[in-house]
Amino acid sequence: MTQLSGLQKDVLALYRRALRMARTKPVSAQPKFTLFVRYTFRTTSSSVSARDLTAIEHLLRKGKRQLAVYEDPAVKDCWVSKEMYDWQKAHYQRTH
């Protein structure tokens, strides 16, 4: 099995933390939060080179700040665009 770098572990930890945050939200909003997290990570990761450490570190800091806002219990819902729904539908069709 391949060893993960510290940066890779940090990205995965942020992703897991974001998915856990989605499960703390009202049941009606959980799918929207989950879609938001998945879409954001997938589209951002495809636009950044794995070798661009500075950009990855910047995105990690930005993601942690954004997640801290969403983890606030006062945040009950999030906005999901049509583009995100289309991406989800296309991704589901590719995998099933």
What do you see in this structure?
It is built from four helices and no strands. It is mainly α and 96 residues long. Helix 1 packs antiparallel against helix 2 and helix 1 runs parallel beside helix 3. The protein is globular.
Helix-strand layout with pairing:
Layout: H1 6-23, H2 30-47, H3 53-71, H4 82-95
Helix pairs in contact: 1-2, 1-3
Q: How many domains make up the 3D coordinates?
A: 1
Q: Share of helix among residues?
A: over 70%
> What is the strand tally?
0
Indicate the low-confidence ranges by residue numbers.
none
Oligomeric state, counting identical vs distinct chains: single chain
Radius of gyration: 14 Å
Q: Main β-sheet: number of strands, strand sense, barrel status?
A: none
- Overall geometry: globular
Name the beta content range. Answer: under 5%
Descriptors:
4 helices; 96 residues
Give the structure's gist in a few sentences.
The protein is mostly helical. The protein has one domain (6-93). The protein contains 4 helices and no strands.
